[in-house]
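Request: Have a read of the protein record below and say how the chain folds.
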Amino acid sequence: MEVFFAFVGSGTHLLRNALVTLGEMTLGLVIGGVAGMMLALFLARYPAVERHVMPMIIATQTLPVFAIAPLLVIWFGFGAGSKVAMATLIIFFPVASSFHDGLRTTASEYLDLARGWGASPWQILSRIRIPAALPSLASGLRIAAVLAPIGAVVGEWAGASAGLGYVMLQANARGQTEIVFAAVLILAVAALVLRTAVSRFCDYLVFWQVTPTTTSLRIHD
């Protein structure tokens, strides 16, 4: 009940800060997703570089996000830049790793057939390996959509003047637990909206895949 009254009394304030966090999540997802895809394509095109680059990328994932967040605030300031950077760093690895694995595991018979027909490495990458790896990319994007709120809120906890993470810290310092829970609920809804949007995009990306739901509907019909 107290949480409901918090929505009523501070709804405008909460929603305004929710839009800030949602923007940081979305921008971080876009930048991190594009950067992850570019790295995966680069490593697929130049596999000799993978032995040197991937260990360094994996090593960066062992660093605790709470240790990185203050550095990003120092480098990018208290504005949205540091929060977007935090979300980008968290999102980057699952997208790059999933897409890279998909590019590496393309069926060998397809590759052999393309080489037999004289296809160039770029043609093999663009016409065979990338389409075959799209389901893996979709899985990575779905995971990244769930991680995006974590990056944005952790960045706001490290230093911010707006956002749901900032609201949580301020309310917690004042003992306003109902505001904290209200902010958490709004964050969950924002994360669900982002996850649903990404899932719809991924369904469009791999439209040829038949899901169990569509299969059952077709059998029923």
User: Anything to note?
Assistant: DSSP finds nine helices and no strands in the chain. Residues 2-45 form the longest helix (44 residues). Residues 213-221 have pLDDT under 50 and may be disordered. The two ends are 46 Å apart (CA to CA).
